[in-house]
Amino acid sequence: LLFLTFSLPPSLSPPAQIRHRRDRMAAAPLLLLLIAAGAWGEVRVSVPDKVEAELTRSVMIPCTHTVTGPHASVMVEWFVVLAGGGRQRIAYWDRSAGGVTDGDTDLTPRVTVDGAGLTLTGVKLTDERSFLCQVTAGVAGSNEGSVRLEVYDAPEPPEVTVNPAVLSVTEQLPSEIGTCVSRNGFPAPRLTWYKDGSALPTVTSHNEYVYETPRVVREASGLYTVSSRLFLKLNKGDKDSGFSCGVGFHTPTGDRSINSHPFSITLHYHSERVTFALAEGGEVKEGDKVRMKCSSDGFPPPEYIFYRLMGDGEEHELGTSRDGVWVLPSVMRNDTGPYRCEALDFDAPPEIELKKDLSLFVHYLQTPEVSAKSPLTLPLGHDLEVTCSAQGSAPVKIIWRKGKDHLSHSPTLTLKKLGYKSSGTYVCEVSVPSVRGLVRTRQLKVLVEGKPSLESGGSEVRVEAEGQRVTLTCAATAHPTPKISWSVDKQPVVSAWDQAVVSKVSLPVSAELETSGVTCNASNRHGWALRSFSIAIVPPTTEPPVTSGGGGAGEGVGGAGVVVTAVLVSVLVLLLLVCALYWLHKRGKLPCGHKGRKEGIQTDVRNDNIVVEMKSGQSAENSGLLGSNPERRGERR
Q: Of the candidates 595, 635, 627, 597, which has an alpha carbon nearest to the alpha carbon of residue 610?
């Protein structure tokens, strides 16, 4: 080494060699000292380039070191770099004393130190500076590392103030959309504008399309408030766009962003298309309320004017409307024709057509005409043929009906041999199948005239005893409505409906009544009809069964069924008795039985006050209360 140190390059001149040798000899002690230090040991210090901390939180700045070679002790000292470039120690650590904080710095209350690094609590904005970690190891020497502490604070969510004015697409320059503000961030955060979720370009220079005017203010607290005003050249498509503002910032855990709530703008744009149609749609018929709707795609909606176009194309003004609706309250067939709507949008360019036409057709159906006038009176037994016709805007369908019964699906209604049941109201119903609800009707009232017709039925009434009450019923049908009279002087009960009359009379049976009978007479101006009732008193031969009594017609029919059942049972018992007697007679077990010898069986019969109602449609035999002893009947007569 000494040889190399003091050897001279052969290319140097003698004076130069002398100067070179002198310099070499002067540097030899320093070189020997360096060689000696390398032989004793080395100190290495490792720190990160920067450490990030959140405002008001705690942070630990790591510092690791390695010492090679023999050394007595290790001391780790921490310094901060002052604004003027100098340094100030704030704490140190060694094995014997541990961590010690210097007492004359602004960091003293918030600093602790150990062998792993420096811990700083309650981080402030003024803590953003460089920290030095210096390690000294005796004869092994010393070394240091510098680390930058960076402080961050998340800003408040952005607040957007939307421009309340009505913006217009007709503006030549970009319009102000709104202002976005985010407060109290560190360092100054970044603002970004979004349209429909896509970021708008960040342009600060004025142009014809989009730009923003940013502003950054440092508050007294040291934190930053940033704001931005967005200017944008608008078009019609922006009426449905959603705008928002986002603030981006950095934290020790990574980059973050907070977006504002989306908002829309009130945009004024001219109409480009006009539509004109019926609000309800479908076919229109006479009497309908028609609403014609005119609309355009401009905003705010313009006022509309409506016209009726005459035959020569002349516009007949109907009126104006703010909501674009024109109403015809009850249309008639003469309302058929063309109509026009015009949008009064004065911002629209001249090439935009703001008029639209509509053709209205009103379906109609005339009231049906019937070949006969109502009311129509016809004789009993005659035929009826009547026709119905109607004109409409479309093919019609004709139905004849009476009540719910459909009688004919053609214009002609034919009825043969009219009876009283043929009387009533007939309806000719005409409809247009292609137009829902377009129906017209015409009624024809038919009256069938003739003499009265009495309901047929049994004319013989049998009772068990004199004084028993009977109810007789006479029912007649005719037009004009007949009157019914009785041959007895009793007040009848009369009920009538349509062309039918029912008369009932209730009276006690007497011998004179049995002899004379009872008649009812139904008459009108066309004639009369007579019906006779014969009354017979026939005492019963057996004890009558007990039945639920009553003089009404319904009670008589119900009691007759019970009585018939009782009579049938009695007959069966008698037959069994006769068979038993015949069998005993053949066996010779009976002392009687000689020819010509008779014994009668005497039966006591009580005549109770029994009332029997006899309808004209019910025979006396069906009552079940009449006996079958012809001898007694002959004797009474």
A: 627
